[in-house]
Amino acid sequence: MKRTVIVLNTVVLLIVFFFYGCGTADQTNSDSESSSPSPGATTHIVKMTSNYEFVPSSLTIKQGDSVKWVVTGAKAHEVASGTFIMTEDGKEGVPDGLWKTGKMASGSFTYTFHSTGTFPYYCGAHLDQGMIGSITVE
Ligand SMILES: [Cu+2]
């Protein structure tokens, strides 16, 4: 009887930890009104590596698709839409206001593209390492 209680407690703890972990790891943009993706939409993965790269750095997707940026490795990254300028101190990001995550040590960020076009983005922490990317929506 006592053993059953301990096992049950462990299972409950594991379940709580699992859901808490998932809940905090995923940031979702407020742009998507509906939580359910439209039929046929795809979520594409872009890795943010410890080599200061977005992989793949350029990606072509369909209108309505989402891109999920995932932190891989130990370095913290940021994903901000926009371009950059050259300054005396190096490259400086110019956010265009579509999305900007702030630094993420782990987890992911998902953005759904509702309009077509080309969307440049960058990691504000690693612009000088050339950490930029681009999404083309057809
Ligand atoms: Cu970075």
Automatic annotation (TrEMBL):
Its cofactor is Cu(2+). SUPFAM superfamilies: Cupredoxins. Residues 51-138 form the Blue (type 1) copper domain. InterPro entries: BlueCu_1 (IPR000923), Cupredoxin (IPR008972), ET_Amicyanin (IPR052721), Plastocyanin (IPR002387). Keywords: Copper, Metal-binding. Cu cation binds at residues 77, 123, 126, 131. Coiled coil: none annotated. The crystal structure with reduced Cu(1+) has also been determined. GO terms for molecular function: copper ion binding; electron transfer activity. PANTHER family: BLL1555 PROTEIN (PTHR36507:SF1). This is Plastocyanin. The gene is petE.
